[in-house]
Design goal:
Length: 593
């Protein structure tokens, strides 16, 4: 089955669903809050989610125009599925209030999909609903007239069968909505974006073969031009661009110099592998240069054999049969839709290009290296203005990551609001480039029982946590020696010799762009010190929670250095104590905000 087909058939989809292997798919739970039927989509969405690496368990509400959200269960995504023709007046204000309520109830991302087509000739509501959710974290509203804008409204509706199907949507509309939800929308809310696009040249970006036809004879159709313009749009969104083509590099470079009619130019590519080596080898070099995983790359090539040869590497692929088809697939392709563009997206390419110059200084001493590059580290504590970037880094980082918490934006917000937690974000810049926010460390305070009793007392557990699970309603204080915890900001203190306030690290992530600059250990020790001070921590022993993942060897190597444990011993554990100590920051400019 062609998962990207524009001519979907329900029977074919249902048959294909029966032979799928979900062993490597991430399981997700999705709540559907609705006032018309979602079942026509649920029954066919499985293959599209499977292609995205997801397997969904849907929980459907009863039909409810009032959106009471009865019996909400924990989920990874909340979908509001409304036919707004069922309301007599503009529902914007009421919808806003219900979304605010749901946001307070659930920490999962929220996607509201509104059936806004009243009949075959008119729209129910042409207003832009997006402004009503600007203040609601991780919440998005889309109208079906927008999602299916290439189709006429008469193709979208089937009023005659609505009493049977439970929805005014036609079978064709349901199939394509399932495709768009499963490939494009749901992955964009739950999975990190891909990081790089790698392009072939001949018969991909134009018609013709450079080595045989010559640069002047290559044909740039309007469709090829549109494809190149689309690739440039992705570059502006922060995707890295690279070439992997079997040609002579000097010929390829001369072609771009000659063909000023090409929207894409040589300088737009962040790395080039134009040679006669196997494409799989070139893709490996590109991934290494960008310091990303092969599974973060989308490779577009017109040669079916090349596509099949690189698939075992984990690279995502599109077979470039026609430029118009590539454009259509790109609009659907999982992890190519970004819900937000941040500062770091625009900085990424320059930062990676500067790495080559940084490598030239590797033989310098640490202090000389820092001074020469004029490296500045900026530490922020509980930086609410950068909540989106904090969430993004915690969810997209794969190499230098400790505990794979993968929190929602609402979970990040709850950490920022909690008195027991602190989040340190670290920005970095040097004379070559501004890297932006490159590291996040999440920690919390907890009381360690030292084996001695304490006098009775009661404290609100929201301001003081006795145990790691933070579910106790009370804790005890008293004694002759006063020990401050986070609650001390509210005038609460702990005394007694039986307890000490300790620091527990929930997760650590460092962007792959920042690795290899001799900063990992220094950043972590400095962050731990700032967190301990902020939380009123007494203990010099820090508990770090972690997991062994598929690709987090860089983190485990740093943890081995910090703890003195060997890699084999670390891989058998899930938490470890390390000692806090001062570090040599000479040569660095350090700013704390």
């Amino acid at each position: 089955m062609n998962i990207f087909s524009s001519h979907l058939k329900r029977n074919e989809i249902l048959s294909y669903s029966k032979i799928l292997d979900f062993s490597k798919c991430q399981k997700i739970a999705i709540n559907i809050h609705r006032n018309h039927a979602f079942e026509p989509l649920e029954s066919v969405i499985t293959p599209f989610l499977h292609y995205s690496g997801l397997k969904a368990d849907f929980t459907l509400s009863s039909y409810d125009d009032s959106l009471n959200f009865d019996k909400i269960i924990e989920s990874d995504l909340e979908i509001i599925w409304l036919d707004i023709s069922r309301y007599k007046s503009d529902i914007a204000e009421y919808l806003e209030s219900r979304l605010e309520f749901l946001r307070q109830t659930s920490k999962a991302p929220i996607l509201a999909i509104l059936m806004d087509i009243a009949d075959s000739k008119t729209l129910q509501n042409t207003r832009d609903f997006s402004n009503i959710v600007e203040h609601i974290t991780h919440c998005e509203i889309l109208c079906i007239s927008q999602i299916l804008q290439e189709r006429e409204s008469k193709q979208i509706l089937d009023e005659l069968k609505s009493s049977i199907t439970g929805t005014r949507l036609s079978n064709i509309a349901c199939l394509h909505l399932a495709q768009i939800l499963g490939l494009r929308l749901i992955p964009s809310l739950l999975l990190p974006s891909l990081k790089a696009i790698v392009l072939d040249l001949d018969n991909t970006l134009y018609y013709g073969i450079l080595g045989e036809d010559g640069a002047k004879s290559l044909t740039l159709t309007q469709e090829h031009k549109a494809l190149q313009e689309k690739i440039l749009t992705y570059k502006k969104q922060g995707f890295l661009l690279a070439l992997a083509s079997k040609n002579e590099e000097q010929d390829a470079k001369a072609m771009f110099e000659l063909r000023s009619d090409f929207p894409l130019q040589w300088s737009d590519f962040d790395y080039v592998q134009v040679n006669w080596n196997p494409k799989s080898e070139n893709l490996a070099h590109i991934a290494q240069y960008f310091n990303i995983g092969l599974d973060s790359i989308l490779f577009i090539d017109d040669n079916p054999a090349e596509i099949e040869n690189v698939k075992p590497t984990g690279v995502k692929t599109i077979l470039a049969t026609e430029p118009s088809e590539v454009l259509r697939i790109l609009e659907l392709f999982p992890q190519m839709r970004k819900t937000r563009i941040n500062k770091e997206d625009s900085l990424r390419a320059n930062d990676i290009a500067a790495n080559a110059k940084r490598k030239e200084l590797e033989n310098l001493s640490q202090e000389e290296y820092f001074k020469n590059l004029q490296i500045e580290l900026e530490f922020h504590l509980d930086d609410r203005a950068n909540m989106v970037r904090i969430h993004e880094l915690l969810n997209k980082t794969n190499q230098f990551i400790a505990n794979y918490t993968r929190p929602t934006q609402e979970q990040v917000k709850s950490w920022l609001d909690s008195q027991n937690y602190v989040i340190v974000s670290i920005a970095m810049r040097d004379k070559l480039s501004d890297s932006g926010n490159i590291a996040i460390i999440v920690g919390r305070s907890f009381e360690r029982d030292m084996g001695l009793s304490a006098e009775k007392g009661e404290i609100d557990s929201e301001k003081c946590a006795e145990a790691r699970d933070f579910h106790n309603e009370k804790c005890k204080n008293g004694g002759s020696v006063e020990k401050k915890c986070k609650g001390a900001k509210e005038g609460i203190t702990h005394g007694g010799l039986g307890k000490e306030v300790s620091l527990e690290i929930i997760d650590i992530v460092v962007s792959c762009r920042a690795l290899g600059r001799r900063l990992e250990s220094l950043m972590l020790y400095k962050a731990f010190a700032l967190m301990s001070e902020n939380l009123g921590v007494d203990s010099q022993r820090i508990i770090v929670h972690y997991q062994k993942g598929e690709r987090n060897k860089p983190f485990l190597q740093t943890l081995a250095h910090l703890s003195g444990e060997d890699m084999v011993a670390l891989e058998s554990k899930q938490s470890i104590e390390i000692a806090q100590h001062a570090v040599d920051m000479r040569g660095l400019r350090v700013v704390v905000r």
